[in-house]
Every structure is written in structure tokens, then in C-alpha cells.
Amino acid sequence: SSLGVLTRQAIESMVPVALLQVQPGHAVLDMCASPGSKTTQALEAIWADGSCGGGGFVVANDASRTRCQMLLRRCAALGELCSTLLVTCHMAQKLPRLPLPQADHGDVDGRYGNGSYDRIICDVPCSGDGTARKNPSVWHRWSVEFALEMHPLQLQIAMRGAALLKVGGLLAYSTCSLNPLENEAVVAELLARCGDALELVDASDRLQGLARTSGLAHWHVMDDELTEFGSYAELAASTLPRVLKRRFRRSMWPPS
């Protein structure tokens, strides 16, 4: 409601946090948190035993000061649960580690040590084309360019999330897009870059009533004229002007 007493949340928005199975005592990071529905869901999970979070907490971050204010207003309705909430305004792809005494911080940039968080919600900025079913105006604004612009940023944020994750922790990557450039391509490149340090978790035993399907294994990448390129090599050999080719990344195509 307008008073924040009751907040409605779409089922698809609840799935990432539900799959993470947040528990009391967990350190949770919401990398791109506003407007805050996933943050409040995580807060309620760490307070599930009725105690003060069981020593757990949630760090909710957003790069926009205005959106952080929106986040704060929503979370304020949770009362004492906010005692285990920290809101930060920072670029998600450059989030620093938490100075926790139990964390192995590695080098000064926090690149090699153990992470700070048991669970990370990585719901990245996206083109939002998957919301067209409830917001038809999305199609009027849609452009191929959106995914080309978003893919590098999404990958940077996901990579930072992996660096901040504790060994044995879980990270949920999600978008509001149907475009494989923003989903499968990002996850595939994330796994490739992280090697054996990161693995894809089979979550089929969780939320068993949830309708789901396997991710795509093959897709083409298009330019503004809807010309399809089956591989980066095909793009490189095309007559597309060099300045336009610079928008593409090898990671946008399926792994070979």
C-alpha cells in the first residue's frame, strides 16, 4: 500500500531469493536492490527464527541515490528488521569487500581471498523486454541496441558478485529480459572466466511446483538492421562498419 504496510510482489520476482534459501545467520548482498522487494524478502528470511537475524544481515546496494531513497522508504515499513540492514549507494561492479574479521581478503583489491557473503542476489540492470506481458509499451521502446549495451555491464556486475561470494556460497543471477545476450551469454562467460572456482547449481529440487525449462544452448546475435551473425568470426568478416562492430563482444555468442 502507499503506507508500506502491504507490498505486492510478482512470483517471478520472488524466485531468485527463494532459490537461494536464505537462512538466519547468513550475510546477504543485494547488488542492484531498488526498489527493494528482494531485499525485504531476504530480510524476512534471516529473521525467520524470530531472533535478531541470528547474526545475519543484508547489504542492499544501488547505484542511484534516488533509487536508494525509494529502497529505504520501502524497508522502513519492516520496523526492527531494518536493524540488520545496510543500504549503500555504489556502482555494483566496483563494490568493495566488507571488512569482516572472519573473511580472507586476499590482496588490497579483494581479488583472490574468500568473499564476504553467503548469498548474493545479482538482479542486474537489463532491457526489461520480459515485462512486455504486463507493460506493452516496452515493445514501442525496444531496440536490439539495449542488449548490446547491457551485456558488458551485466557481466562486470556478475564477475564482481562472484569475487564477493564466500566459498560454498550461492549467487542468483537474474534479469527481466528474455534475450539470451543478457542471460545465457552472461552466465556462460561468467563460468568460463571463473573456471573451477564457480559452478552451476542444479536447483531442480527447489520450488518443485515452479514451471521451468532449460536455458538456450544456441542463438544468433543481431545488429540494428536485424541481420543475424552466427559467430563473432562471421561478424568480423561482415561489411558492418568498424565503429558498429565495436559494440559486440565475443562473449555474446554461445560458447563453442
TrEMBL record:
Annotated PROSITE patterns: SAM_MT_RSMB_NOP (PS51686)
GO molecular function, one term: RNA binding
Protein residues bound to S-adenosyl-L-methionine: 62, 123
Family: Belongs to the class I-like SAM-binding methyltransferase superfamily. RsmB/NOP family.
UniProt xrefs under Pfam families: Methyltr_RsmB-F (PF01189)
Protein name (record): SAM-dependent MTase RsmB/NOP-type domain-containing protein
GO biological process, one term: RNA methylation
Alphabetized SUPFAM superfamilies for the sequence: S-adenosyl-L-methionine-dependent methyltransferases (SSF53335)
UniProt entry tagged with the keyword Transferase: yes
UniProt-annotated catalytic positions: 176
Family matches, as InterPro entries: MeTrfase_RsmB-F_NOP2_cat (IPR049560), MeTrfase_RsmB-F_NOP2_dom (IPR001678), RCMT (IPR023267), SAM-dependent_MTases_sf (IPR029063)
Domain SAM-dependent MTase RsmB/NOP-type per the UniProt entry, residue ranges: 1-239
Record keywords, A-Z: Methyltransferase, RNA-binding, S-adenosyl-L-methionine, Transferase
UniProt-listed Gene3D superfamilies: Vaccinia Virus protein VP39 (3.40.50.150)
